[in-house]
From TrEMBL:
Lineage: Bacteria, Pseudomonadati, Pseudomonadota, Betaproteobacteria, Burkholderiales
Organism: Hydrogenophaga laconesensis
Name by which UniProt lists this protein: 2-C-methyl-D-erythritol 4-phosphate cytidylyltransferase
Name of the top EC class for this enzyme: transferase
Reactions it catalyzes: 2-C-methyl-D-erythritol 4-phosphate + CTP + H(+) = 4-CDP-2-C-methyl-D-erythritol + diphosphate
Keyword flag Transferase: yes
Length: 240
């Protein structure tokens, strides 16, 4: 793993790109179509997500990784490149998307902001805050929230223990890392089917890096369960 600070940092030249894995089926959402395409507040969820990302002027390329047989997209969205390279897992889709960025001319020293399509409530201000916090960092980082609730472990459906929540954070997205190091970190797990890679930060941790935690917002939640759709719609409709 190269030293990011000494080998990849080139002040004034690194660009920022967005990568949106969008090949999941969303089985937990209980919808008849992939949840990222479920209508919320007048348009498919993923379009709200793309609207937020495309409103950040510092993001150059925006790649959406979709399944090979995806029939939702009939044309390339404005300011976006579709890559029909969806994998069996989110990590594989991200890995394939990083290669698509390379083919579009992205450099290994460029920053990549990987964001969940189902986090449709992210705002341009939150994305910009992440860029501001990470652009001079030797590793990169992610939006996250300090754990607000009491945390329990379970055994057979009953509480086994209460866990100290001190120092524990809920990971969100975007997660921002340089293209080369992130691609190398994922490549190191590819032979194992990306086992243990739950997000980009976890892949970086596996190669000894310590991503920066940047405080996000409770509204930047991932739409996962059926009841989340109504909450997301309420938040979107409350915004100007």
């Amino acid at each position: 793993m190269p030293d990011v600070a000494t080998e990849l940092t080139r002040p004034g030249t690194a660009r920022c790109h967005a990568l949106l894995p969008c090949a999941g089926t969303g089985t937990r959402a209980g919808t008849g179509i992939p949840k990222q395409y479920q209508p919320i507040a007048g348009q498919p969820m993923v379009m709200h997500t793309l609207d937020a990302l495309r409103a950040v002027p510092r993001l150059d390329l925006c790649v959406v990784v979709i399944a090979f047989d995806d029939v939702f997209w009939t044309s390339q969205p404005v300011g976006t490149t579709l890559a029909r390279r969806g994998g069996a897992t989110r990590a594989e889709s991200v890995f394939n998307g990083l290669q698509a960025l390379r083919e579009l001319g992205a450099d290994e020293s460029d920053w990549v902001l990987v964001h969940d399509a189902a986090r449709c409530l992210v705002t341009p201000a939150q994305v910009s805050a992440l860029i501001d916090a990470c652009r001079d960092d030797p590793v990169g980082g992610l939006l996250a929230l300090p754990l607000p609730d009491t945390l329990k472990t379970a055994a057979d459906g009953r509480v086994a223990a209460t866990v100290d929540r001190g120092g524990k954070w809920l990971a969100q997205t975007p997660q921002m890392f340089r293209l080369g190091p992130l691609q190398a970190a994922l490549a190191a797990r590819a032979a194992q089917g990306f086992a243990g890679v739950t997000d980009e930060a976890s892949a970086m941790e596996m190669v000894g890096q310590h991503p920066l935690l940047v405080q996000g917002s409770a509204q930047n939640f991932k739409v996962t369960y059926p009841e989340d759709f109504a909450l997301a719609e309420a938040v979107l409709r409350s915004r100007p």
